[in-house]
Amino acid sequence: MSKRAESFPLHRREVAKTLLGAREDLLVVTGLGSTNWDFTAAGDCARIFPLWGAMGGAVPTGLGLALAQPSKRVLVATGDGEMLMGIGALATVAVQAPKNLAICVFDNERYGETGMQTTHTASVADLALTAQGLGIRNTGTITDENELKAELDAIINADGPVFRTIKVRAEPLEFVLPSKDGVHLKNRFRAELLGPEAL
Amino acid sequence: MEWGDDIYKAIKEAGVGQVAYVPDAGHKRLINACIDDNDIKAVSLTTEEEGIALSAGAWLGGEKCVMLMQSSGVGNCINMLSLIETCRFPFCAFVTMRGQWHEFNPWQMPMGTTTKQALQTAGCLVDEVEDPSDVGAKAAATIHKAFVGQQSSVLLLSQRMVPIKTFGK
Ligand SMILES: Cc1ncc(C[n+]2csc(CCOP(=O)(O)OP(=O)(O)O)c2C)c(N)n1
Ligand SMILES: [Mg+2]
Question: Domains of chain A, with CATH numbers?
């Protein structure tokens, strides 16, 4: 089993904090598993819609939101395992080409949530190349602090769709859980974005 | 399949902003109408389950999304429908049936004969239509049930309403 991810320099909790803090009107959809806990730790709030399931659904959820709200910046932050399960959605995103959508895969090369089994990215699969091949032009891989700093503006502001793989350390972290009540998570997000009359 | 025009009319009257689809021959006319409509974002999916999550995301952003697929596509949606049920998202789909009426292709039978039960098991309210003159009223009611009634609402379009497919045999 490839152990390289255990020494990747980027810590996912710091990356989530940097992304969430970069733009106060950023709308975030997270995948299930660690990205959910990362963004909850960075600041549990109504402009985050954290998935607890629906594996493979983070990118299309973000796409539906981005198409509905073209004037708002939308970030999908998800895991490599979650991305692999719904990989075709990147082609759907490429065809729609929403300018306001960015996708960041926190790639720890592991199914973190289920016991740190290696995913396909630990050996052969390259998600940024895949995104490129499926038609997303603005793609790349971020491996350290300097690259993250240099790429932050593209993730947060550049014309989308933007795709970045962010290689993050495979590390055990404490759980930081948001509400698991899906109705509540939906309503708090819609009230924040659309106003109380949306409820 | 002029009844596709009746669904299109119901979609327009409800102010639907996104229509997601995996093509089916029975939906051809309706899909083309949606693609040609500049006020509808027509989203071609690589698999039907994307459309479930897309619908949820659209609703998070205050927009209505309707899905078009065939009965085999329902099989691709099951786990993703947990997003609709758990968060009580409104959901609306029009499903063209296979495996029902003069079906030529046995590979369509497993999903065609279990679509309704599969959807109901996954928490959807299912209605059916076999008479083309009833499609307009049922389409409007299906959309109303989804976005006003805030339910997961699916209309099955009988294979009897589409030309019999014989693959040239
Ligand atoms: C359809 C489905 N299959 C399997 C699982 C079990 N599961 C939960 S989280 C997860 C791994 C997620 O891996 P990744 O997206 O890379 O997240 P991270 O490593 O950041 O935790 C799996 C396989 C599930 N919840 N749903
Ligand atoms: Mg992972």
Answer: 4-111+125-198 (3.40.50.970)
